Amino acid sequence: MVQNFHRHLYIFYSFVFLLNVIHTFWSNEALYSFIGVLGMVMIVLSFPRAGRVFKVLGIILLAAGAFFFFSGSMTVLDIPDLFAGNIGLLLLLSMLPWMNSAVKAGRYNKLLKDLLQARVHTLGQLYGRSEATMVSLAAFLNLSSATISQDLLKEQLSKVNTGVRNSFVSMATLRGYSLALLWSPLEILLATSIFITGANYLEVLPWMLLIALFGFLIDTFTGRMLFGKIELPEKRTVSSTGTQGKLKGFILALVLFLSTVVFLANVVNFEFLFSVTIAIFPFALLWSLVLKRQKSFWKLGLPTWKHHTNHLDNFIVLLLSLSVLTETLNASPYLELLQEPIIAYSDSPLVIMLLIQFGFLFMTLVGVHPLATMGIFGGVSGLLMEALPAVTLAVLLSSTAIATVPSAPYGLIVTITSVNFQMNPYKIVWKNLPYTLLCGSIGVGVSLLTMLVYS
């Protein structure tokens, strides 16, 4: 009975998401409070099924929120509104499987295999190809790009020394994955940073691509230096027939999707987060129709979306607890204490940037999801934007947060790699920590560059 109930949670969640969409077009206080009440129900339903780390995070965030609530002037009637703030982020997370299903229906996941299996002679050459492939395709394939490439590399490198193979895979795939997240509109950390700052995605995008380019060039060079002299035991040749055309079609689809999001955000004047969310399903459906793969799209997409939405527990606990903390913090007198370091260094933007970079790194290493840290910084975003332009802050928050993805010991991509290759997650973290510091520092450097344009 309980299991059957959990299999149909997507119906209830979809109802809440629909109300949130209605509220976007019809701003009504009573409706917003009702969404908040339903958000409270969501967190009660999700908490028992959430992972241990997310339960602990949720308890800490709610406890801190309760402390700030009682320290301020809020009343009991304000409580429902506290849980409504991040429903839009949950809606975006719920919609992501539809894009992934369109990619799989079009068999673009096989494109990744073809690109990785092309002729290479050394591990150094394969490193650059692996990272470039991940950067190109992970924007749409997301986590599945990592699992597909890791499975293929495990097969390709079966005769390579286990330690070398594990180092290679944990570096090339995780770093390439994070480089794709830097500019992908489907990445929740980038979307959240734009949501917090109100920056224009079109203005943020070139800077994020610049960070990704610098990160890719430096890390590819590093990979060639580390693995360049190691010969591959087998040299595979894969026919390029159809591969180039398929890759061009994939890139065209990516450009069209980005153009759609930019049109909705800049011409229709929707918020960026909402623009991405409402663009995903229609675009994915039209894409599958153009490819004449609509039957596969529905066959793959519907059960995947239901299962994914039924299991949003970790993110529901994290994001709704975070909403409570952010709202209560902004209404609490203790906000001034948190603002003091920012005020003290308001004339030293580099110091503020480094505090944010190492704040993300420290919190990630102790097991706090970067999305939670992003929310904490979001709580003082008003003051941060007095010291930094909105575009600068968006670039800084997203780049330094995403840089920690390969070094998050409890992150999903690290966990998948750890299980897949039977590696200690902290070994993976240790291998990728230099990259995290480098990519975060590039993000800080580019953020300083943006100040010359937007200050």
UniProtKB/TrEMBL annotation:
Keywords linked to the UniProt accession: Membrane, Transmembrane, Transmembrane helix
Transmembrane stretches, start-end: 9-26, 32-50, 57-77, 83-103, 180-201, 207-227, 247-266, 272-291, 351-378, 390-413, 433-454
Entry annotated with the keyword Transmembrane helix: yes
Keyword Transmembrane helix: yes
Entry protein name: Uncharacterized protein
